[in-house]
Design brief:
Number of strands: 15
Helix content: 40-55%
CATH superfamily of the largest domain: Adenosylhomocysteinase-like
Shape: globular
Distance between the termini: 72 Å
Strand content: 15-25%
Largest sheet: 8 strands, mixed
Structural class: alpha/beta
CATH architecture of the largest domain: 3-Layer(aba) Sandwich
Number of domains: 2
Low-confidence stretches: none
Mean pLDDT: 96
Length: 421
């Protein structure tokens, strides 16, 4: 692709800028990072390809990277997650080349990723590991240029660790997702709120009184289950991990297998990061009008091929982001957002306040990786804990929250072994 950008409609830029500026008001920690980056230029001379959800919050991250001196090109990390007005604004108002269109097909999606890699990046950012996968397959010649890659998702970190285990990972990667200020808040509170937001926008259904089946009780699942219960839903959790299952039980949720949950659930939400969590045998026994969606990164958690084979009739777009499948027994199953990330397919993703922490960590982890150029092995690295601590401290300050500090006596006590009974 020879063009410098590819967005749906550049005339949407003015509206996109308004939304980007609105989100920025709720991202004070990232603002502080941007202010320092603008002064110090720690990313100067580095080319960055960012395969991320093109949202208002992401726009402010990209602005921060540019403020740090980086040359940045961005593409979408999911065909349905792009906010077209923000993509236009990034190009026209902020001079950042973007290749992303909401609803782009698979060919365009990969063409856009390749366009982002055409700058021969030194650093990449990923939301799901697709860009890194491309660098390890059809764009291998560029892998030697990579100083480091940042990964924002649970799904992506799983893929990267599998590559590390197989000995195929060609450059250092940083598991931004695993930073406490990312997964503990973004995955739990961000995913929890935005998933329900997407479900409600797509269906206009009342959550109260419904049996909500949440597949997976990791941090994302905890958030979805908590928010569903908070809206009056009767929450059922399915799990494969006995420890997480016990945790869900002790958190007050009903826990059962998907086989048991399938006939009784009204709304099904998958957040596992695994494949075919809801399969043909589950779809077959669902009650009439059951609603099914996914809030994991890839569209593989629902076996939609099996559902299509089971359906005697399929109606696409019965409502925006809703497809209806009629089974042989006359029951209908409603699939939201084509089985893709419902919080970004049908809504606007996580609130800016929680992405403030995630993207501050992302920016600072990038700076750390660049400062350690040549000293990091081609493995998956954790974000340094001091970055987490700094982001958390600044976030508390922005919220007007004060916490205690250790006294000299307490410091001495914690470092001694001769005090006690």
């Amino acid at each position: 692709m020879s063009s410098k950008y590819d967005v749906k409609d550049i005339s949407l830029a003015a509206e996109g800028k308004k939304r980007i500026e609105w989100a920025d008001k709720d991202m004070p920690v990232l603002q502080l990072v941007r202010k320092r980056f603008l002064k110090e230029k720690p990313l100067k001379g580095f080319r960055m390809s960012a395969c991320l959800h093109i949202t208002t919050e992401t726009a402010n991250l990209l602005r921060t990277l540019v403020a740090g001196g980086a040359e940045v090109v961005a593409c979408a990390s999911n065909p349905l997650s792009t906010q077209d007005d923000n993509a236009a604004a990034l190009v026209k108002e902020y001079g950042i080349n973007v290749f992303a269109i909401k609803g782009e097909n698979r060919d365009t999606y990969f063409r856009h990723m390749n366009a982002a890699l055409d700058i021969k990046p030194n650093v990449t950012m990923d939301d799901g590991c697709d860009l890194v996968s491309l660098l390890h397959s059809s764009r291998k010649s560029l892998a030697g240029n990579i100083v480091a890659s940042m990964e924002e998702t649970t799904t992506g970190v799983i893929r990267l660790k599998a590559m590390e285990k197989d000995g195929t990972l060609k450059f250092p990667t940083v598991a931004v997702n695993d930073a406490m200020c990312k997964h503990f808040f973004d995955n739990r509170y961000g995913t929890g709120q935005s998933t329900l937001d997407g479900v409600i926008r797509a269906t206009d259904h009342l959550i109260a009184g419904k049996k909500v089946v949440v597949a997976g009780y990791g941090y994302c699942g905890k958030g979805v289950a908590s928010r569903s219960r908070g809206m009056g839903g009767h929450v059922i959790v399915t799990e494969i991990d006995p420890i997480k299952a016990i945790e869900a039980v002790m958190d007050g949720f009903q826990v059962m297998s998907m086989e048991e949950a399938a006939p009784i659930g009204d709304l099904f939400i998958t957040v596992t990061g695994n494949i075919h969590v809801i399969r043909g045998e589950h779809f077959k026994v669902m009650k009439n009008g059951a609603v099914v969606c996914n809030s994991g990164h890839f569209d593989v958690e629902l076996d939609l091929v099996a559902l299509a084979k089971l359906a005697k009739k399929t109606r696409k777009g019965v409502r925006e982001f809703v497809d209806e499948f009629t089974l042989a027994n006359g029951h209908t199953v409603m699939v939201l957002g084509e089985g893709r990330l419902i919080n970004l397919a049908a809504a606007h993703g996580h609130p800016a306040s929680v992405m403030d922490m995630s993207f501050a960590v992302q920016a600072l982890a990038t700076e750390w990786a660049i400062k350690n150029k040549g000293r990091l092995s081609a493995t998956v690295h954790n974000v340094p804990p001091e970055i987490d601590a700094w982001v958390a401290k600044l976030k508390l300050e922005s919220m007007g929250v004060n916490i205690d500090t250790l006294t000299k006596e307490q410091v001495k006590y914690l470092s001694s072994h001769d005090m006690g009974t």
